[in-house]
Amino acid sequence: MFVILVYDINQKRVAKVLKKAREYLYWVQNSVLEGEMSQVNYIKLKTELKNIINEEEDSVIFYTFRTTKYSKRETLGIKKGGDENIL
User: Fold this and answer.
1) How many CB atoms lie within 10 A of CB 66?
2) Is residue 30 part of a domain?
3) For residue 85, is it within any domain?
4) Structurally, how many domains does the chain consist of?
5) Would you say residue 77 lies in a domain?
6) Model pTM?
């Protein structure tokens, strides 16, 4: 599946969330990651992030797609993230 992850995290925890998410997805822009992942890794990532965030203060949103066959992404302006290797 293709996943887009968007987050708004308290500054105390944001580095931990980004580091964990980059183990599974590519960072593309401030607070946004994306990439292909298995259902097992998707569940694992959600569980690991749930252990890091404070659900009273933080927000993580996952958009999931079965395929990117009919999708298109356009970037205006600078490219912040990239397709570099996942950590």
Assistant:
1) 7
2) yes
3) no
4) 1
5) no
6) 0.84
Separation between Cα atoms, residue 27 and residue 80, nearest integer Å: 8
Residue 51 identity: N
Closest CA to 86 of 11, 8, 5: 5
**CATH number of the domain that 39 lies in?**
3.30.70.240
For residue 2, count CB atoms less than 10 angstroms from its CB and return exposed for 0-12, middle for 13-18, buried for 19 or more.
middle
For 42, phi then psi, to 5°, come to: -60, -45
Q: What is the DSSP string of 22-61?
A: TTTSEEEETTEEEEE--HHHHHHHHHHHHHHS-TTT-EEE
The parent domain of residue 49 ranges over 2-65
pLDDT digits (tens, 9 = 90+) for 10-67: 999 999 999 999 999 999 999 999 999 999 999 999 999 999 999 999 999 999 998 8
Helix (H) or strand (E) holding 15: helix 11-21
